[in-house]
Amino acid sequence: MKSLRVINLDKFFGETHALDHVSFDVAEGEIVAVLGPSGCGKSTLLAVIAGLEIPNAGEVQWDGKSLASVPSYKRGFGLMFQDYVLFPHMDAFDNVAFGLRMAGLAPEVVRQRVRETLALVGLPGFEKRDVNTLSGGEQQRVALARSLAPQPQLLMLDEPLGSLDRTLRERLMFELREILRRLHQTAIYVTHDQEEAFAVADRVVVMDLGRVAQIGTPQAVYSRPASLFVARFLGLDNLLPGKVGKDGDQFTIETPIGRLSTFEQGLGSVTVLIRPDAARLDGQGELQLEGSLVKRSFRGNTCRAVIETNGVRLTFEFLSNAPLPAEGERVRLSFDPAQAIQILR
Ligand code: ADP
User: Fold this and answer.
1) 4-233 adopts what CATH topology?
2) pTM of the predicted protein model
3) Is the shortest distance between the CB of 191 and ligand 1 below 6 Å?
4) Does the beta carbon of 41 sit less than 6 angstroms from any atom of ligand 1?
5) What are the extents of the domains in the chain?
6) pLDDT digits (tens, 9 = 90+) for 252-266
Protein backbone atom coordinates (compact mmCIF):
# COMPACT_ATOMS: atom_id res chain seq x y z
CA MET A 1 0.00 0.00 0.00
CA LYS A 2 1.57 3.30 -1.09
CA SER A 3 0.50 5.87 1.41
CA LEU A 4 1.64 9.32 2.50
CA ARG A 5 2.68 10.07 6.06
CA VAL A 6 3.20 13.58 7.31
CA ILE A 7 5.01 13.45 10.63
CA ASN A 8 5.36 16.40 13.01
CA LEU A 9 6.06 19.02 10.35
CA ASP A 10 7.26 22.40 11.50
CA LYS A 11 7.81 25.35 9.20
CA PHE A 12 8.72 28.90 10.13
CA PHE A 13 8.80 32.00 7.94
CA GLY A 14 10.65 34.42 10.23
CA GLU A 15 8.39 34.75 13.26
CA THR A 16 5.42 33.07 11.54
CA HIS A 17 4.88 29.49 12.62
CA ALA A 18 3.22 28.40 9.36
CA LEU A 19 3.19 24.69 10.27
CA ASP A 20 3.13 23.66 13.92
CA HIS A 21 3.64 19.92 14.52
CA VAL A 22 1.40 18.84 11.65
CA SER A 23 0.82 15.08 11.36
CA PHE A 24 -1.66 13.06 9.28
CA ASP A 25 -1.78 10.16 6.83
CA VAL A 26 -3.30 9.69 3.40
CA ALA A 27 -4.01 6.05 2.53
CA GLU A 28 -3.71 4.70 -1.00
CA GLY A 29 -6.73 5.78 -3.03
CA GLU A 30 -7.94 8.11 -0.30
CA ILE A 31 -9.01 11.72 -0.83
CA VAL A 32 -8.08 13.90 2.13
CA ALA A 33 -9.19 17.53 2.27
CA VAL A 34 -7.09 20.09 4.13
CA LEU A 35 -9.63 22.66 5.28
CA GLY A 36 -9.06 25.96 7.04
CA PRO A 37 -9.27 29.74 6.76
CA SER A 38 -6.84 31.79 4.72
CA GLY A 39 -3.39 31.91 6.28
CA CYS A 40 -3.72 28.68 8.32
CA GLY A 41 -0.85 27.00 6.46
CA LYS A 42 -2.57 24.94 3.75
CA SER A 43 -0.39 26.05 0.83
CA THR A 44 2.77 25.79 2.90
CA LEU A 45 1.81 22.21 3.77
CA LEU A 46 1.38 21.34 0.09
CA ALA A 47 4.67 23.02 -0.80
CA VAL A 48 6.49 20.95 1.85
CA ILE A 49 4.88 17.70 0.66
CA ALA A 50 5.73 18.59 -2.94
CA GLY A 51 9.35 19.29 -1.96
CA LEU A 52 9.15 22.98 -2.92
CA GLU A 53 9.74 24.10 0.68
CA ILE A 54 12.04 22.45 3.22
CA PRO A 55 10.53 21.98 6.70
CA ASN A 56 12.38 23.14 9.81
CA ALA A 57 11.52 19.86 11.49
CA GLY A 58 9.50 16.73 10.84
CA GLU A 59 9.29 14.45 7.86
CA VAL A 60 7.22 13.50 4.84
CA GLN A 61 7.19 9.79 3.99
CA TRP A 62 5.91 8.00 0.90
CA ASP A 63 5.52 4.24 0.92
CA GLY A 64 7.26 4.13 4.31
CA LYS A 65 10.39 6.01 3.14
CA SER A 66 11.52 9.53 3.95
CA LEU A 67 11.37 12.00 1.07
CA ALA A 68 13.89 14.35 2.70
CA SER A 69 16.53 13.67 0.08
CA VAL A 70 14.15 13.22 -2.88
CA PRO A 71 13.92 16.39 -5.03
CA SER A 72 10.53 17.68 -6.05
CA TYR A 73 10.65 16.45 -9.66
CA LYS A 74 11.49 12.90 -8.56
CA ARG A 75 8.59 12.56 -6.11
CA GLY A 76 6.07 11.66 -8.80
CA PHE A 77 3.46 13.96 -7.27
CA GLY A 78 1.09 16.13 -9.31
CA LEU A 79 -0.11 19.61 -8.47
CA MET A 80 -3.14 21.55 -9.63
CA PHE A 81 -3.51 25.15 -8.53
CA GLN A 82 -6.39 27.60 -8.60
CA ASP A 83 -4.37 29.81 -10.91
CA TYR A 84 -3.87 26.82 -13.17
CA VAL A 85 -2.80 28.94 -16.16
CA LEU A 86 -3.10 26.74 -19.20
CA PHE A 87 -0.55 27.45 -21.91
CA PRO A 88 -2.57 29.91 -24.01
CA HIS A 89 -0.69 29.33 -27.25
CA MET A 90 -1.31 25.56 -27.15
CA ASP A 91 -4.50 23.63 -27.90
CA ALA A 92 -6.10 21.29 -25.35
CA PHE A 93 -4.09 18.32 -26.65
CA ASP A 94 -0.71 20.00 -26.22
CA ASN A 95 -1.66 21.29 -22.77
CA VAL A 96 -2.54 17.79 -21.56
CA ALA A 97 0.41 16.21 -23.40
CA PHE A 98 2.93 18.59 -21.82
CA GLY A 99 3.91 16.48 -18.79
CA LEU A 100 3.84 13.27 -20.81
CA ARG A 101 6.30 14.61 -23.36
CA MET A 102 8.48 15.95 -20.55
CA ALA A 103 8.53 12.40 -19.18
CA GLY A 104 9.74 11.19 -22.59
CA LEU A 105 6.77 8.97 -23.44
CA ALA A 106 6.43 7.75 -27.03
CA PRO A 107 4.12 9.86 -29.28
CA GLU A 108 1.61 6.99 -29.66
CA VAL A 109 1.39 6.55 -25.87
CA VAL A 110 1.01 10.32 -25.46
CA ARG A 111 -1.81 10.46 -28.02
CA GLN A 112 -3.65 7.56 -26.39
CA ARG A 113 -3.24 8.92 -22.85
CA VAL A 114 -4.38 12.44 -23.81
CA ARG A 115 -7.47 11.05 -25.55
CA GLU A 116 -8.37 8.89 -22.53
CA THR A 117 -7.77 11.65 -20.01
CA LEU A 118 -9.81 14.26 -21.89
CA ALA A 119 -12.66 11.73 -22.11
CA LEU A 120 -12.32 11.02 -18.39
CA VAL A 121 -12.80 14.68 -17.47
CA GLY A 122 -15.84 14.95 -19.74
CA LEU A 123 -14.15 16.59 -22.74
CA PRO A 124 -13.98 13.82 -25.36
CA GLY A 125 -12.85 15.08 -28.75
CA PHE A 126 -11.62 18.45 -27.39
CA GLU A 127 -8.03 17.79 -28.50
CA LYS A 128 -7.86 20.49 -31.17
CA ARG A 129 -9.72 23.17 -29.24
CA ASP A 130 -7.91 26.44 -28.67
CA VAL A 131 -7.95 26.76 -24.85
CA ASN A 132 -8.79 30.47 -25.14
CA THR A 133 -12.21 29.53 -26.55
CA LEU A 134 -13.12 27.24 -23.62
CA SER A 135 -15.46 28.21 -20.79
CA GLY A 136 -14.08 28.55 -17.23
CA GLY A 137 -15.36 25.10 -16.32
CA GLU A 138 -13.88 23.52 -19.45
CA GLN A 139 -10.52 25.16 -18.81
CA GLN A 140 -10.61 23.75 -15.29
CA ARG A 141 -11.23 20.27 -16.72
CA VAL A 142 -8.29 20.63 -19.12
CA ALA A 143 -6.14 21.68 -16.17
CA LEU A 144 -7.34 18.60 -14.25
CA ALA A 145 -6.61 16.39 -17.28
CA ARG A 146 -3.13 17.90 -17.50
CA SER A 147 -2.39 17.04 -13.87
CA LEU A 148 -3.93 13.54 -14.11
CA ALA A 149 -2.34 12.50 -17.43
CA PRO A 150 1.13 11.69 -16.01
CA GLN A 151 -0.65 9.36 -13.51
CA PRO A 152 0.85 10.96 -10.39
CA GLN A 153 1.21 8.74 -7.32
CA LEU A 154 -0.32 11.58 -5.31
CA LEU A 155 -2.35 14.44 -6.73
CA MET A 156 -2.48 17.70 -4.76
CA LEU A 157 -5.19 20.20 -5.62
CA ASP A 158 -4.93 23.73 -4.17
CA GLU A 159 -8.33 25.51 -4.25
CA PRO A 160 -8.91 24.02 -7.72
CA LEU A 161 -12.45 25.39 -8.02
CA GLY A 162 -11.84 28.68 -6.22
CA SER A 163 -12.27 30.95 -9.21
CA LEU A 164 -15.54 29.44 -10.53
CA ASP A 165 -19.07 30.61 -9.86
CA ARG A 166 -21.20 28.73 -7.33
CA THR A 167 -23.32 26.59 -9.68
CA LEU A 168 -20.33 25.42 -11.67
CA ARG A 169 -18.33 24.80 -8.51
CA GLU A 170 -21.08 22.61 -7.10
CA ARG A 171 -21.28 20.52 -10.25
CA LEU A 172 -17.54 20.19 -10.64
CA MET A 173 -16.90 19.16 -7.03
CA PHE A 174 -19.12 16.10 -7.39
CA GLU A 175 -17.60 15.25 -10.77
CA LEU A 176 -14.11 15.70 -9.42
CA ARG A 177 -14.80 13.24 -6.62
CA GLU A 178 -16.19 10.72 -9.11
CA ILE A 179 -13.15 11.04 -11.38
CA LEU A 180 -10.69 10.67 -8.50
CA ARG A 181 -12.62 7.66 -7.13
CA ARG A 182 -12.75 5.98 -10.51
CA LEU A 183 -8.96 6.28 -10.83
CA HIS A 184 -8.46 5.21 -7.19
CA GLN A 185 -6.33 8.37 -7.10
CA THR A 186 -4.59 9.21 -3.84
CA ALA A 187 -5.24 12.94 -3.40
CA ILE A 188 -4.95 15.93 -1.10
CA TYR A 189 -7.54 18.62 -1.71
CA VAL A 190 -6.89 22.04 -0.20
CA THR A 191 -9.80 24.42 0.34
CA HIS A 192 -11.21 27.05 2.70
CA ASP A 193 -14.74 25.95 1.76
CA GLN A 194 -16.33 23.33 4.03
CA GLU A 195 -18.96 22.38 1.46
CA GLU A 196 -16.26 21.55 -1.05
CA ALA A 197 -14.20 19.63 1.51
CA PHE A 198 -17.23 17.63 2.66
CA ALA A 199 -18.38 16.86 -0.89
CA VAL A 200 -15.00 15.77 -2.26
CA ALA A 201 -13.11 14.12 0.61
CA ASP A 202 -13.16 10.81 2.45
CA ARG A 203 -11.53 12.51 5.43
CA VAL A 204 -10.94 16.10 6.40
CA VAL A 205 -7.96 17.66 8.20
CA VAL A 206 -9.12 20.96 9.72
CA MET A 207 -6.29 23.46 10.29
CA ASP A 208 -6.04 26.53 12.49
CA LEU A 209 -2.95 28.76 12.74
CA GLY A 210 -0.60 26.10 11.42
CA ARG A 211 -1.96 23.36 13.69
CA VAL A 212 -4.23 20.41 13.04
CA ALA A 213 -7.50 21.21 14.81
CA GLN A 214 -9.34 17.98 13.94
CA ILE A 215 -9.12 14.97 11.64
CA GLY A 216 -12.09 12.82 10.70
CA THR A 217 -14.71 11.91 8.13
CA PRO A 218 -16.89 14.83 7.03
CA GLN A 219 -19.78 13.32 9.02
CA ALA A 220 -17.68 12.93 12.18
CA VAL A 221 -16.21 16.43 11.99
CA TYR A 222 -19.58 18.05 11.38
CA SER A 223 -21.45 16.06 14.01
CA ARG A 224 -18.71 16.31 16.67
CA PRO A 225 -16.52 19.39 16.21
CA ALA A 226 -13.51 18.99 18.50
CA SER A 227 -13.17 22.63 19.50
CA LEU A 228 -14.79 26.04 19.52
CA PHE A 229 -12.68 27.00 16.50
CA VAL A 230 -13.92 24.03 14.44
CA ALA A 231 -17.55 24.63 15.45
CA ARG A 232 -17.37 28.31 14.46
CA PHE A 233 -15.51 27.57 11.26
CA LEU A 234 -18.22 25.09 10.25
CA GLY A 235 -20.87 27.74 10.83
CA LEU A 236 -22.21 26.17 14.03
CA ASP A 237 -23.02 29.47 15.72
CA ASN A 238 -25.44 28.51 18.50
CA LEU A 239 -22.75 28.85 21.14
CA LEU A 240 -23.60 29.81 24.71
CA PRO A 241 -21.43 30.31 27.77
CA GLY A 242 -22.18 27.67 30.39
CA LYS A 243 -21.12 26.74 33.88
CA VAL A 244 -21.13 23.08 34.88
CA GLY A 245 -22.32 22.44 38.45
CA LYS A 246 -23.74 19.58 40.43
CA ASP A 247 -27.29 19.08 41.59
CA GLY A 248 -27.21 15.97 43.81
CA ASP A 249 -25.79 13.22 41.58
CA GLN A 250 -26.73 15.02 38.39
CA PHE A 251 -24.35 17.37 36.58
CA THR A 252 -26.08 20.49 35.23
CA ILE A 253 -25.07 23.47 33.12
CA GLU A 254 -26.30 26.98 33.81
CA THR A 255 -26.75 28.82 30.51
CA PRO A 256 -28.46 32.06 29.45
CA ILE A 257 -31.41 29.93 28.25
CA GLY A 258 -31.78 28.01 31.48
CA ARG A 259 -30.41 25.02 33.30
CA LEU A 260 -29.59 21.98 31.18
CA SER A 261 -28.72 18.51 32.44
CA THR A 262 -25.51 16.98 31.13
CA PHE A 263 -23.35 13.88 31.21
CA GLU A 264 -20.34 16.19 31.33
CA GLN A 265 -18.25 15.31 34.38
CA GLY A 266 -15.82 18.19 34.85
CA LEU A 267 -16.94 21.32 36.69
CA GLY A 268 -16.25 24.85 35.49
CA SER A 269 -16.80 27.11 32.52
CA VAL A 270 -17.66 25.60 29.16
CA THR A 271 -19.20 26.58 25.85
CA VAL A 272 -22.48 24.92 24.98
CA LEU A 273 -23.18 24.19 21.33
CA ILE A 274 -26.83 23.74 20.38
CA ARG A 275 -27.00 22.00 17.03
CA PRO A 276 -29.01 23.94 14.45
CA ASP A 277 -30.64 20.80 13.03
CA ALA A 278 -31.79 19.31 16.33
CA ALA A 279 -34.85 21.44 17.17
CA ARG A 280 -38.24 19.69 17.14
CA LEU A 281 -41.68 21.24 16.78
CA ASP A 282 -43.61 18.19 18.01
CA GLY A 283 -42.92 18.88 21.70
CA GLN A 284 -41.54 15.35 22.17
CA GLY A 285 -37.98 16.30 23.21
CA GLU A 286 -36.99 16.25 26.86
CA LEU A 287 -35.68 19.81 26.81
CA GLN A 288 -38.16 22.63 26.14
CA LEU A 289 -37.42 26.12 24.86
CA GLU A 290 -39.86 28.92 24.18
CA GLY A 291 -39.14 32.12 22.34
CA SER A 292 -40.23 34.40 19.59
CA LEU A 293 -39.54 33.70 15.96
CA VAL A 294 -37.52 36.72 14.84
CA LYS A 295 -36.79 35.77 11.26
CA ARG A 296 -37.48 32.99 8.78
CA SER A 297 -35.53 32.50 5.59
CA PHE A 298 -36.41 30.09 2.84
CA ARG A 299 -33.47 28.08 1.52
CA GLY A 300 -35.04 25.59 -0.87
CA ASN A 301 -35.39 22.24 0.88
CA THR A 302 -34.81 23.76 4.26
CA CYS A 303 -35.83 26.86 6.10
CA ARG A 304 -33.74 28.73 8.63
CA ALA A 305 -35.37 30.32 11.66
CA VAL A 306 -33.85 32.75 14.15
CA ILE A 307 -35.41 32.38 17.58
CA GLU A 308 -34.94 34.78 20.46
CA THR A 309 -35.24 33.55 24.01
CA ASN A 310 -34.06 35.29 27.19
CA GLY A 311 -32.29 37.86 25.03
CA VAL A 312 -30.29 35.17 23.18
CA ARG A 313 -30.67 34.57 19.45
CA LEU A 314 -30.31 31.02 18.18
CA THR A 315 -30.59 29.78 14.60
CA PHE A 316 -32.28 26.51 13.68
CA GLU A 317 -32.93 24.63 10.48
CA PHE A 318 -36.19 22.92 9.63
CA LEU A 319 -37.59 21.24 6.57
CA SER A 320 -39.36 23.86 4.47
CA ASN A 321 -42.75 22.27 5.07
CA ALA A 322 -42.34 22.29 8.88
CA PRO A 323 -45.28 23.99 10.66
CA LEU A 324 -43.40 27.09 11.82
CA PRO A 325 -45.40 30.12 13.01
CA ALA A 326 -45.06 33.49 11.27
CA GLU A 327 -42.34 36.02 12.09
CA GLY A 328 -43.00 37.82 15.37
CA GLU A 329 -45.04 34.97 16.86
CA ARG A 330 -44.17 32.68 19.77
CA VAL A 331 -42.67 29.29 19.07
CA ARG A 332 -42.09 26.31 21.34
CA LEU A 333 -39.16 24.06 20.53
CA SER A 334 -38.02 20.86 22.15
CA PHE A 335 -34.77 18.92 21.99
CA ASP A 336 -33.27 15.55 22.75
CA PRO A 337 -30.31 16.74 24.81
CA ALA A 338 -27.97 13.90 23.73
CA GLN A 339 -28.34 14.95 20.09
CA ALA A 340 -28.81 18.66 20.48
CA ILE A 341 -26.30 19.68 23.10
CA GLN A 342 -22.56 19.44 22.92
CA ILE A 343 -20.03 20.76 25.40
CA LEU A 344 -16.89 22.43 24.11
CA ARG A 345 -13.99 23.48 26.28
P1 ADP B 1 -3.08 29.29 3.42
O2 ADP B 1 -2.64 28.51 2.21
O3 ADP B 1 -3.86 28.46 4.40
O4 ADP B 1 -3.78 30.56 3.09
P5 ADP B 1 -0.24 29.79 3.74
O6 ADP B 1 0.39 28.44 3.83
O7 ADP B 1 -0.17 30.49 2.43
O8 ADP B 1 -1.76 29.69 4.23
O9 ADP B 1 0.41 30.75 4.84
C10 ADP B 1 0.57 30.40 6.18
C11 ADP B 1 1.28 31.52 6.92
O12 ADP B 1 2.63 31.60 6.48
C13 ADP B 1 0.67 32.88 6.66
O14 ADP B 1 0.77 33.65 7.85
C15 ADP B 1 1.55 33.46 5.56
O16 ADP B 1 1.56 34.87 5.62
C17 ADP B 1 2.91 32.87 5.90
N18 ADP B 1 3.74 32.66 4.70
C19 ADP B 1 3.48 31.77 3.71
N20 ADP B 1 4.47 31.78 2.78
C21 ADP B 1 5.37 32.70 3.20
C22 ADP B 1 6.64 33.18 2.69
N23 ADP B 1 7.16 32.69 1.57
N24 ADP B 1 7.28 34.12 3.40
C25 ADP B 1 6.78 34.58 4.57
N26 ADP B 1 5.60 34.19 5.10
C27 ADP B 1 4.91 33.24 4.44
Assistant:
1) Rossmann fold (3.40.50)
2) 0.91
3) no
4) yes
5) 4-233, 240-344
6) 888 888 888 777 677
